[in-house]
Write the structure tokens for this entry.
Amino acid sequence: MEFNRRKSHKAKLGNDRNWFIDCIDTQTRFLVSAEFFKTREQKEVIKVLRQAKLKTQSQVGIITSDGYNAYPKAIQKTFTLRCKSNTQKFGVIHNQVNASRGDGFNYPIERLHNSVRQRTQNFRGFHGSVDSAKTILKGFEIYYNFIRKHQTLNKTPSELATDIKLTNPNKWLELINLSTFNLST
């Protein structure tokens, strides 16, 4: 799983900076957890990591992030870093990629952030409240995971990461029907 945060460029509420913090699975490109915040502190990073941990259980082995200093502490509090565990056999490995140091780029997450930026650049909801921006980004998360085919994979991330197989040409409608079916059972 790759983990990163990204300031949502052009996704501003007034003149304030805001942050899109997210986790994706690099193999399937499935967006596991994501949130939109007014600040980027350790508590926001932990919230996104906890959502990812809840959804993936013990499937995470490596977490890749950029060089932001809050990540090692947040990962330690949420998953336990293998290098800080008593036996150094349990926990996750933290791989920090810092492009300014010449470590290269974290391409899967950067590609996702380019998609987010492309979709949100002109959305009016981002000029209102954080709640409307969060709603728009949750809709994008569903679109990204279940509707839109990934160019490299030629499949949606959900086709690789889940057992859900959408066959209706109108995948939005099929997802709505599946969700209402699950609510009634």
About this structure: The domain at 2-184 is CATH 3.30.420.10 (Nucleotidyltransferase; domain 5). DSSP finds six helices and five strands in the chain. The first strand starts at residue 2 and ends at 7.
